[in-house]
Design brief:
The chain has a single domain, classed as dinb family like domain (Four Helix Bundle (Hemerythrin (Met), subunit A)). Helices cover 55% and strands 4% of the residues. The chain contains 6 helices and 2 strands. It has a two-stranded antiparallel sheet. Helix 1 packs antiparallel against helix 5 and helix 1 packs parallel to helix 6. It is elongated and about 60 Å long.
Length: 179
């Protein structure tokens, strides 16, 4: 598991990369799905907001109770690279609230605010050993809190690729050039 400093760097790098990918989607196409059964850029950002908030909410709850000892075999989980590679398509366990999908700049500001909350959680818990605190992940297995914090970055990396696909698949608007 990466060190806390590395996790913070990964969170920062993932968000910067995601925001660059989101820049490629014009504001007037923000809520336009690039095809059938595909998310719009707005839905994608709404999903990231929903998931990161849910993870933080659950991490807060886990810290309220004493950690539970896990047998070794339950501490083994699939690597985060599987999340980032996006080879295996997964259905989200949490549905995105359609009211989250709004104009581009408001949504990106909200995504940044959620990340600030994640970084505040890291600062608030910096003096504690979070390894004994665990929660199951539906696909990867049981993760400790550091694993969950890395999961936020890996999840955003995964969806950065999707945002790039979305931007590339949207119809290109060509301005009329007249002399």
């Amino acid at each position: 598991m990466p060190a806390l400093k590395t996790i913070v760097e990964n969170l920062d790098r993932a968000q910067k990369s995601f925001l660059r990918a989101a820049d490629a989607v014009p504001a007037d196409q923000w809520q336009t799905p690039p095809g059938a059964e595909r998310w719009s850029a707005g839905q994608l950002v709404g999903h990231l907001i929903t998931i990161e908030r849910a993870i933080l909410r659950n991490l807060d709850k886990v810290l309220l109770r004493p950690p539970r000892a896990l047998p070794f075999y339950k501490r083994v989980h699939l690597p985060m690279a599987l999340v980032e590679l996006r080879l295996i398509r997964r259905k989200t366990p949490l549905q995105t609230d359609s009211q989250l999908v709004r104009e581009k700049e408001a949504m990106l500001a909200e995504l940044r605010e959620v990340r600030q909350r994640t970084l505040a959680f890291i600062d608030e818990t910096r003096g504690r050993d979070l390894r004994p605190y665990t929660m199951p992940h539906a696909f990867l297995g049981v993760l400790n809190m550091y694993g969950w914090l890395q999961m936020i970055a890996s999840h955003e990396i995964r969806h950065t690729k999707q945002m790039r696909e979305t931007a590339a698949a949207l119809p290109k608007v060509v301005a009329n050039l007249q002399k």
